[in-house]
Design brief:
The chain has about 625 residues and is of the alpha/beta class. The chain contains 25 helices and 22 strands. It binds flavin-adenine dinucleotide.
């Protein structure tokens, strides 16, 4: 009896297949994380790095500290724990990234340019296009000023340089890289990794002028008249304060100001007992950096004994509500941070001479209301005072755009100090002025800033040349006739990233907490990837509806359902894989729960008629 197909693959919409690759979708620059993870599993570490590097000029830094939205989206979480995508990127970068090259020019000019060849990989195509484009001169030289050398400014400059435009970065700090250098502590991000990636960007012809503050050393007017366009990528570097009695005066400091002083080796006014107010990752960076000052003080001064600092980290949230990552809370506790949850700061207590002697807290009854809005309630009768001599406030950052006069420069800024930005182009209200990074979107992750910088580069290019550089998405399907997974890949537990000994690592601020995966570890961890770019494709012409595929499926993600029951079937996120009609028989469909599929290929191997094939779906952007 012939099976009459209603449709072969019932979801021909490319965006559906694309959306199956969760890691790539979640990455703001659409890194093909699955691609580099699988390349590591197969032992091709150079390919892995090239895939990671394609869309991301700061791939090595991301390998160290990226907030990794890809991991948060990783489908492996539905089995056990997500793939260690970020540490795998670090592993690939440690193999081929600029930090392992002596001459950064060789890395880009002689190696990366040659190796970035078109492959079935979206990400590398973009860089290839940019590299090819960089050979074509523009009709006239174009100069763009970028204010700020954080990840947004650097990414923007990288792409503009490849587009043939001359970017000049103006940076008020004595060193480039923004918060990556003056915020993120050295124990998480070694400075030589930052220097390596910045040097590569400089080797493309980007000029970085450090120690130049716009608004003080040069005016915004002069930039508007001297440059063809301006990109404002000044981040959010101002520590937010708290309106508490006693907050003004010595002994109280902004958390990011403290981190900046440590990073730049400025003299510190730090006592022995420190209260850090805040419950996010930055508060942990602050608290853990304080702990590392004991031995640093000893090295800098004639003090013989380490002046051990006691750190109390106090936040409004309960342990479950805290915004800090679990790893920060765990590692902070290992290092000696005393955590106080549900502590609402009421007053900073000072003695007769104005010295800080403590912070009084009131008990927090709730932080968020029924609508999950921030609306803390306190019990003012339940008070606790923690004795201390220094208070570091890490409750967020804000932007400083005081160098702009909205009326004169035509740049619209809201009452809250946030610039008005056209989100699709990142253009500000004034012609030729663009925003990128935290200043444009509010504080986020470095990968958001990188994506934003790249977007601003394209908008600037279009604004200056009138040429659009929108890519077109191409889709490829590769049949994988002998698709086979590593033995037992579905049972391998996530390999935790090895970390240095807590007692040892607090002795120096440049001892990295994470020591990274060894090669066997990296290959094993990478072999856990479910490879969501691979899909089961059902051919209803061949399907005899025997149900064998559903029987062998180890995760029960396939089911035979009669068409009448299809509508009622819960979870319509499932793909209807095959619908078959036999004259006189009820219509049945095989439905598949994509979330549960582990791409093991058991169904394809079991199918007696070859109706199921394993196919790799790849997406790449074709550049004009
Ligand atoms: C302590 C800390 C730790 C963080 N850790 C992580 C992490 O682990 N992972 C992660 O993904 N993200 C992390 N982030 C967030 C990330 O660092 C930021 O999202 C990112 O740096 C924003 O990039 P940006 O380029 O927009 O701004 P920034 O990095 O802030 O760079 C802006 C630059 O502009 C310069 N500038 C400002 N005003 C002027 C002026 N008037 N003239 C000249 N120059 C000026 C500043 O000096 C600065 O160098 C962290 C942030 C902080 C504060």
């Amino acid at each position: 009896m012939k099976t009459v197909p209603l449709f072969k693959v019932t979801i021909p919409d490319h965006s559906y297949w694309r959306s199956q690759i969760n890691c790539q979708n979640a990455c703001p620059v659409h890194t093909d994380a699955r691609g580099y993870v699988r390349a590591i599993a197969s032992g091709d570490f150079e390919l892995a790095y090239l895939i990671a590097r394609g869309p991301n000029p700061l791939a090595s830094i991301c390998g160290r500290i990226c907030g990794a939205p890809c991991e948060a989206a990783c489908r492996r979480s539905s089995v056990d724990r997500p793939i260690g995508i970020r540490p795998l990127k670090r592993f690939a970068a440690g193999h081929s990234g600029p930090e392992v090259w002596e001459t950064k020019g060789d890395y880009f000019g002689d190696w990366l340019k040659e190796r970035i060849i078109p492959q079935l990989c979206q990400s590398r195509d973009e860089l290839l296009w940019l590299i090819r484009r960089s050979g074509e001169p523009l009709s006239r030289p174009l100069k763009v000023a970028i204010i700020g050398s954080g990840p947004a400014g650097l990414a923007c400059a990288h792409d503009l340089a490849l587009l043939g435009i001359n970017p000049v970065i103006l940076e008020m700090e004595p060193v480039p890289a923004g918060m990556l250098y003056v915020g993120v502590p050295e124990y998480r991000l070694p400075r030589d990794v930052i220097r390596a990636e910045v040097s590569v960007i400089e080797s493309l012809g980007v000029e970085i002028q450090c120690g130049v503050e716009v608004g003080k050393d040069v005016t915004f007017d002069s930039l508007q008249s001297e440059y063809d366009a301006t990109v404002i990528a000044v981040g959010a570097k101002r520590s937010r304060g708290l309106p508490l009695p006693g907050v003004q005066g010595p002994g109280v400091m902004g958390g990011v100001d403290f981190l900046r002083d440590v990073a730049l080796r400025n003299p510190l006014e730090l006592g022995a007992n420190v209260v850090v107010i805040g419950g996010g990752n930055v508060a942990y960076d602050v608290g853990r950096t304080v702990l590392r000052q004991a031995y640093f003080d000893m090295a800098r001064t004639a003090v013989r004994q380490p002046r051990v600092h006691e750190v109390h980290l106090c936040c409004l949230e309960s342990l479950m509500e805290m915004p800090a990552d679990d790893v920060e809370i765990i590692e902070g506790a290992e290092e000696g941070i005393a955590l106080h949850n549900s502590f609402g700061p009421k007053e900073i207590v000072r003695d007769g001479q104005g010295r800080v002697t403590g912070v009084t807290f009131q008990k927090v009854l709730r932080v968020y209301d029924e609508n999950k809005k921030f609306a803390p309630l306190f019990d003012s009768s339940s008070l606790t005072t923690i004795e201390c001599d220094t208070v570091l406030i890490a409750v967020g950052q804000s932007t400083d755009l005081s160098f702009i006069d909205p009326a004169r420069h035509g740049v619209a800024i809201s009452e809250r100090g946030i610039p008005v930005v056209e989100q699709s182009t990142l253009a500000g209200a004034a012609r030729g002025v663009f925003f990128a990074g935290d200043v444009a979107h509010g504080p986020g992750l470095m990968i958001h800033a990188i994506a934003s910088g790249k977007k601003a580069a394209r908008s600037v290019y279009e604004y200056l040349t009138g040429q659009s550089i929108e890519p077109k998405t191409l889709e490829f399907h590769l049949e994988l006739p002998n698709y086979k997974r590593e033995t037992g890949y579905e049972r391998i537990a996530r390999i935790d990233i090895p970390a240095s000994d807590p007692k040892e690592r607090v002795r120096r601020q440049d001892i990295c907490v994470e020591s990274g995966y060894s090669e066997p570890m990296a290959r094993t961890e990478a072999s856990r990837c479910l490879d969501c770019g691979v899909n089961t494709i059902f051919d209803s012409d061949k399907c005899v509806l025997c149900g064998g595929c559903a029987e062998v499926c180890p995760t029960l993600c396939l089911r035979l359902v009669s068409i009448e029951n299809l509508e009622q079937d819960d979870g319509m996120h499932r793909a209807v894989e095959s619908v078959s009609v036999r004259p006189g028989e009820p219509i049945s469909a095989i439905i598949k729960d994509e979330e549960r599929c582990i791409r093991c290929a058991c169904c394809a191997q079991r199918c007696p008629t070859g109706a199921i094939t394993m196919e790799r779906f790849c997406f790449r952007e074709s550049w004009p």
